[in-house]
Amino acid sequence: MKQTLIIGASGQIGKKFTQLMLDNDQHVVALVRDKSKLSDIHNDKLTIVEEDLNKDFGHAFKDCENVVFAAGSGGHTGADKTILIDLWAACRAANYAKNHDVKHFTMVSSIGAGDPSEGPENMHPYLVAKHMADEHLMNSGLHYSIIRPGSLTNDTGKGKFTNQRPEQKEQATITRDDVAKALLFAVTNPPKKSAITEIFNGSKNIDEVLPS
Fold first, then answer.
1. Cα–chain-centroid distance for residue 72?
2. In terms of Cα–Cα distance, which of 12, 9, 13 is closest to 32?
3. Which InterPro entries does the record match to this protein (predicted)?
4. Residue-wise over 117-140: b if at least 16 C-beta within 10 A, else e?
5. Catalytic: 96?
6. C-alpha closest to that of 68 among 115, 14, 27, 22
């Protein structure tokens, strides 16, 4: 049975993505710190694993072909949590995936992770963490997709995308709904070659934006 492990499945993007996967008849192992946050999702294709990412969570990878790292420290935490979750937990996840012969690893990264020095100063710790986590995955030997969404919004999903960064900063956005849809495509249509893609709301279908 093909299973996908979703790390951070109760987060703002992770939960939307988890529901999309289940709606598309995919078997999901949801790794969360507090399983009560998924108490409103009922599906026989869902297995919930409750674990703290600061502890050993390697057991969650058993029998999973795909892994999606959608966990994040959140915008209201300090640099310490950013290091522990967005960097260290992400790196450990790649190591666990390697040890379990995972076929495809999808990382939810961020616009600006390619060169953190170009981002706003107050975002540097977060972007450096994302940059280093991405680099670790790229050097792991795993087959990967790194998705770098623009600034996130809670607007209703548009279902239209672009991988060309808009010239105007205020247009470099994407809804969380649409990031979840992009992750669904990345998992169900893994690229032939590992890829890094920035995504924003635009005018194209997702299969025109993400490599497959």
1. 9
2. 9
3. NAD(P)-bd_dom, NAD(P)-bd_dom_sf
4. eebeeeebbbbbbbbbbbebbeee
5. no
6. 14
Interatomic CA distance for residues 93 and 147, integer angstroms: 16
* Residue range 25-49, pLDDT digits in tens: 999 999 999 999 999 999 999 999 9
Domain range list for the chain: 3-208
Q: How many CB atoms lie within 10 A of CB 157?
A: 16
Asked if CATH classification 3.40.50.720 holds for the domain at 3-208, the reply, yes or no, is yes
User: Is 199 buried (19+), middle (13-18) or exposed (0-12) by CB count in 10 A?
Assistant: buried
Q: What is the pLDDT of residues 75-98, one digit of tens each?
A: 566 778 899 999 999 999 999 999
Pull the structure tokens for residue 51: 């674990």
Among the listed residues 61, 126, 185, 200, the single catalytic one is 126
